[in-house]
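Obj.: predict assembly geometry.
Materials: sequence records (below).
Method: joint structure prediction, all chains together.
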Amino acid sequence: MEYPPHVIIVGAGALGSFVGGLLSTVTRVSLIGREHHLRAIKEKGLHISGITDRTFHPRAAIIPEDIPPEKGTVFVFTVKGYNTELAVETIHQFVHEGDVFLTLQNGVGNDDIIREHLGEEGILAGVTSHGITFVEPGHIIHAGKGETVIGALRREDDDIAQKLTGLFNRAGIETRVTRNICGEVWAKLIVNAAINPITAITGLRNGEVLEFPELLETVGWVVEEVENTARANEIILPPCDMLEKTLGVLKNTTGNKSSMLQDIERGRRTEIDSINGAVVRYAEGTDVGVLLNRSLTALVKAVEGKEK
Amino acid sequence: MEYPPHVIIVGAGALGSFVGGLLSTVTRVSLIGREHHLRAIKEKGLHISGITDRTFHPRAAIIPEDIPPEKGTVFVFTVKGYNTELAVETIHQFVHEGDVFLTLQNGVGNDDIIREHLGEEGILAGVTSHGITFVEPGHIIHAGKGETVIGALRREDDDIAQKLTGLFNRAGIETRVTRNICGEVWAKLIVNAAINPITAITGLRNGEVLEFPELLETVGWVVEEVENTARANEIILPPCDMLEKTLGVLKNTTGNKSSMLQDIERGRRTEIDSINGAVVRYAEGTDVGVLLNRSLTALVKAVEGKEK
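Observations (raw structure tokens):
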């Protein structure tokens, strides 16, 4: 029998649509998301242009009740961090024992929310560095190719991580499995915590940050604060220089606007609470100083509040 | 004989025009500044509306060569900090022994630039909290009444500080003399260092900062960093709670946009180098940490660079 019988993408924004679209070539996929996007997909399919150039036909569930409940479903979370709680409450009624929950969301803490509502079992996390941009309802761009890493949060679920990794690879999403997904998630958090608020505040594109040497000092201090917070929480970071990695991302995505800057420019709520705000929460009760993460969180929230 | 024979306002922006206008009722005053403003004053006088409501007739010097050199002149510096060096070079040719230099500029370090070029003698500093806004050439608004404090930087010039304080009071600018002008200048620096970059970055009016409790934490940390830097430089701050004072300014100027926010909005260069940038320079070689002042300086410079 094929594994899994059904994948439900919880939050079909840019990344969720990409993953759902590609997975729909190898298994049954349903998307939950915004109505105008799903309606367009229902009518004309999901068009991905750019590196991937093809139209996919995942099932678009305009209302969650559209989704036929099924045992062994894999729920892939790609909603914004501030909507995780709402998403978990919405899907709660469709969940069976043995279902699997994979969060591909930015930041940290989303797995805690899932665990709190849906129990300890079958929770996985993943990080992906594909660059996907939403163009218009029914159409996304695959602008940058990246790596995807998946891992289980409990040793008991390692085999599920293996299976999902296989599924992703069969669908054409190059993926490796890891036993240290927390380290991978925190490594991505470091990069996001350093780049996102600074670009959101200044309005700079990623590459432009490199033109301000004084700003790179601040990037370095944020990286250090998050690294220290990770260590205080017994996270084992991948063995690479995280500042170098962060500068590398700035260099390799020169023309990009960070997701947080895009959110600010569009007057939308940012994911600051799941990124720098989460670092501040994880630092509480430890002796790690997170002055800059606290200040950047406050500044971004003020900019966000101001835009409304 | 009247003292002084001549006051030259170096940088007749909003504050400089205000001081020059009022002083012109008790002594001869010349303004150096932007041509369109000076031309309007030459034609119709300087109109001050608001708390002060009157038209004054200081002499407007379109080119510095318009100014007749005279012994015993008082040069009042009200140019932006980043123009102090240029201003000093411009007036250098008109300076006689015994002339006096009074800086009423924001931030710290301007007196050092004056000293470096014009010698040790006769240098005074002052702070004023009048709220003055530029409306159009020839017209400024006196929006908020404040206190002015003047003091000499060397004990030997205390009598000059006394005389100038008398002059200011006779002109209707309520002024007191102090023997600790450095403490007063740094006290104002603390308030500016905390309010200016945060409002410039977020776009908030002063009073709106109070609506973000997390932002007030950052305000508190900036205050602390500048206080520590002052102490490490043997500055004796006035005996008041500087955080309380800063919050008081936010409360009392609720609707105001800080000068730095106004500069950002108008695409002009800010005084960040004389304010938070100066704190960073004064902290060098001490063991005081100024992480936030460094980061705020970098962020404001990036925003400034971006706007261009």
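Conclusions so far: The radius of gyration of chain B is 19 Å.
To do: check interface contacts against the pulldown list.
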